[in-house]
Amino acid sequence: MAYSSPATAPGKPTVSPIHRWLMLGLGVFAQTSSAIFVHGVPFLLPALTAGGMPLPTAGLLVAMPTVGLCCTLIAWGYLVDRLGERLALVAGPAIMCVAGGAAAFTTSYPLLGVLLFLGGMGAASTNGASGRVIVGWFPPDRRGLAMGIRQTGQPLGVGIGAMTIPLVADGFGVAPAIAVPAVLAGVAAIGCLIGIIDPPRPPRAEAVGANPYRGSGTLWRIHGVSILLVVPQGTVWTFALLWLHRDLGWSLAASGALVTGTQILGALGRIGAGAWSDRVGSRMGPLRQVAIAAVTTMFLLALTAWTHWWWAAVPLLVIASVVTVSDNGLAFTAIAERAGPFWSGRGLGIQNTGQNLAIAAVPPVFGALITATGFPAAYLAAAALAAAAIPLVPVDSEKPLE
What we know:
Distance between the termini: 11 Å
Strand content: under 5%
């Protein structure tokens, strides 16, 4: 199902180029605040355990935002398809703000877990939103770049969370640390309320029965590719710091600095991949090339880790950190374009749910593999899963951008 942009269609309302980029910036800010809430809360582990909380209990507590997110991604997507993205981008961050603010004042750990779960539910809204805003307001030859920029929200949020949450918790306590993403979410809600405009859609009657998942396996193939490719990404993100510190003997400060730097480079990689897809007029061609690059870099990383060629392994870790995240924007753009104006929210919700469930499985599964056999085997397993994604990329069914 093609999705023509109302930004260029005759007789359709338009927004100025400045407002178009402003809405993109608001989407990035909303996603960043969500990522800080979901992925920054785990950085409270040192403070929670230092206060006497058992590690298993603290681990369960900081996982609650992710659980809330996974439970509601598709529901938020349905809301986006029915009522528009502006509502989701305002309501979700508002829920995060209220839940996070309440969490900062509670002294009950069970209630804290419930509030973090509710905050994760609100955070899920930003994952499936902005896709239709980008496809609706940006012309085809700018959508890849725009979605690449949009997808920088997650690594930026992880990086900001890593830099701020532990420091605030150490200096001022757990409550002010939780308040940081809550305040940012409140600002995001206000900004989206003022600045986001839902693009026009055709009458719903024209789309009755136009389920893009029926009669074609293209979207399911893209979901499958993304789930397979997110495993190398999750492996590198989860275990890079431990590998550098334990096997290479780096200090925690140096390891953390390198990991933070790779997050920034990964964000730039997503932007570059999106711009590349605009230039060549294809999402699936670059996606397949990124999959091949992921297989190559993860295999070489496994080889150099096994041979202890650290001079090559560390640069390969940096390269792998960039390559393994570069597919996200390409897949998200393709899903939003193919799903159409009444299914893009659910399509991106399904996409996010599959990826988050896969990432959630990486720490226990690959942690056990590393314990049994070491890091090289884990990197090799991640390369094998990425290799399985290559033939699934639906290059043959891709339509010209319009």
